[in-house]
Amino acid sequence: MTRLSMKPGSCWCQLCVFFLLPLLLVGCASPQPQSRHFFLSEEGLETHGRKTWVDRLFEADPGGVSFAVAEDYQERPPRKIAVLPFVDMGKGSYLVDKVSLKTLNEEELRRWSWTHTNRVRRALAGDLATREFITVSLLKIDAVLANRGITDGDKLNAVPPEDLGRWLDVDTVVYGELVSYEAYYGFLVSGWKVSARVRMVSTKDGHEIFSCIDSRYTSTVNPAIDPIDIVINSGLALSHLRDITLARTEYEVGREIALSLPRAQQNISEFLAAAKEETRRPDSSSSRADTRQSAR
């Protein structure tokens, strides 16, 4: 009788081959990733990025957003928008618990006031630019206003919206106010508060299209009982007052205001119709190139 001999590790090798080979075959036979289509309906378009009461509860954010929309908004929506310089309702100081941490002269206060307001203004303009509107460059707006001597909020408010529309070639202007821009700190609690108020006005007849006020708190709470934990958590709360946290607060204010503005279906229809009409026209640049090539 012939005796079969088997090496000690051969059983394990056979088991590995038995279990791994099907997996390898399945992996080789798996279909290739399909190409995904563009220009489909986007999910959560009206809600993504908008804070709910649950978000505000978990983030210790007692702020909120309140807005009003003109009744004829969908019939006469804004199309080309200029976001005007915001007016600072404060003093431009860097406040912690309502106390200025540094004494600034008048020139420094004006510079920081412009800095604070322009940060929130850029956040709003950036979100509006992703919507169904045409927005004018902030640099162009500032250059036009400066050349006409409009250098502060009083002078800006004295100009009729119709004149602003003619200067900037827009049908809508956005007036903004920075209501609050401050930090607070209480050992185990800290946060930023940024609030802004905006008005969207037609430059054709001066009627108010949209108004909104938004308050945003970015807070952190670090409870502790043990004295050592209190010291550690107080430092962690203080670290929350970083510049990057402030920037996120500014951009959330701009995003929530832009999300409060209803989608202008008329604009979307007009943009789609204009794009279809453009594709039907012959490419003039290509035609000229073909003509020059034929002439050669």
Briefly say what this structure is.
This protein has helices at residues 10-29, 53-58, 106-129, 138-147, 153-158, 161-168, 227-239, 243-260, 265-280, 284-295, and strands at residues 65-69, 80-83, 87-88, 95-96, 99-100, 134-135, 172-185, 189-202, 208-221.
In words, what does this structure look like?
The protein contains ten helices and nine strands. Mean pLDDT is about 80; it is low at about 1-5. The longest helix is centred in the middle third of the chain and has 24 residues, at about 105-130. The N and C termini lie far apart (about 95 Å). The protein has one domain (about 55-265): Rossmann fold (3-Layer(aba) Sandwich), CATH 3.40.50. Strand 8 (about 190-200) and strand 9 (about 210-220) form a beta hairpin. The chain is of the alpha/beta class and about 300 residues long. It has helices at about 10-30, 55-60, 105-130, 140-145, 155-160, 160-170, 225-240, 245-260, 265-280, 285-295, and strands spanning about 65-70, 80-85, 85-90, 95, 100, 135, 170-185, 190-200, 210-220. Strands 1, 2, 3, 4, 5, 6, 7, 8 and 9 form a nine-stranded mixed beta sheet that branches.
